[in-house]
Amino acid sequence: xxxxxxxxxxxxxxxxxxxxxxxxxxxxxxxxxxxxxxxxxxxxxxxxxxxxxxxxxxxxxxxxxxxxxxxxxxxxxxxxxxxxxxxxxxxxxxxxxxxxxxxxxxxxxxxxxxxxxxxxxxxxxxxxxxxxxxxxxxxxxxxxxxxxxxxxxxxxxxxxxxxxxxxxxxxxxxxxxxxxxxxxxxxxxxxxxxxxxxxxxxxxxxxxxxxxxxxxxxxxxxxxxxxxxxxxxxxxxxxxxxxxxxxxx
Length: 249
Ligand code: NDP
Ligand code: 8X3
Hints:
The protein is α/β, with parallel strands linked by helices. It has helices at about 10-25, 35-45, 60-70, 100-125, 150-165, 185-190, 195-200, 210-220; strands at about 5, 25-30, 50-55, 80-85, 130-135, 175-180, 185, 210, 230-235. The chain has a single domain (about 5-235), classed as Rossmann fold (3-Layer(aba) Sandwich).
């Protein structure tokens, strides 16, 4: 049985992916900062697969390396890494954006993804196999008004994904990115700092993607034969044509 480590498994895309992976009999290391949510999910899934919880902030590099280094023997071999943890914080013009928001996005979406990858890549190299999926965004392919630093963080994920493909190529490690458009999760509630009325507006008047839609695609990607690597994938709801073009009723 394979083992997957999923960051950001307490909510949205990461949580849905953990559930779908359990259906595919993939053992799980589920990560996030909210321990109660991790425990609840582990209790739900541990009748199907082995589940280990890791509660840490991806921005805290010592924690990241400590947690991954000290995994119990049964979870020490990681076959699949889903680099999913991340969020947008704020939606402001660059000239009035909050430096704290910028730090949070760069530190979690970019540096956190790098720390987790750095802790796991040597294991995959030693195993001579592994599969890394980086969750980017359409915001990593385009920029949109007021998206500035979030877009920059996801452009960085796009660049890191391509770089990983090149640098890990000699080691037979599969690397790919999935770049969703609008997915209804806790994402907008976090972006708007708990203003759920504003968050709900984002998904009104069209059918947004669900976390389950992305999880099903991730499951498809990880269940291809080893010689098949889905390297880069943009996924929109049908109503969306770009970051700024969404057909709403
Ligand atoms: P959610 O807010 O529902 O989930 C975000 C997850 O990331 C949570 O589990 C959260 O866990 C975790 N997380 C955030 N910051 C940290 C941190 N510093 N340390 C550890 N974990 C962290 O949003 P989504 O599921 O939508 O987002 C998942 C990914 O998908 C993100 O990278 C996002 O940028 C990307 N994405 C989302 C889209 C959307 O429209 N929703 C579209 C394109 C990409 P906890 O708070 O417990 O730590
Ligand atoms: C999340 C989608 O359009 O808000 O990455 O940037 S968007």
